[in-house]
Amino acid sequence: MKEFMNRARNFLRSEDGPTATEYAVMLALIIVACLAAITTLSDKVQTTFENVASALPDGTTS
Fold first, then answer.
1. Cα gap 23→28, rounded to integer Å
2. Is residue 34 part of a domain?
3. How confident is the model over 37-48, as pLDDT tens digits?
4. Does any domain span residue 61?
5. Residue-wise pLDDT tens digits, 7-34
6. Per the domain annotation, does 60 fall within a domain?
7. Are 18 and 12 in contact (CB under 8 A)?
8. For 20-31, b where at least 16 C-beta lie within 10 A, e where not — what string?
């Protein structure tokens, strides 16, 4: 366990550690923004598809 902690400390002290952390934070923010957009738009998209479906004929043939 000490070896792991030492490696983690060294990684975070080097330039790669903060860069990887910054990328992880940016990725998390992008994911949150995408989820918020999907949640917001899902109701509008569903309503649009329901309107289109109700405007189309039933699809039965004579």
1. 9
2. yes
3. 999 999 899 999
4. no
5. 888 877 777 667 888 899 999 999 999 9
6. no
7. yes
8. eeeeeeeeeeee
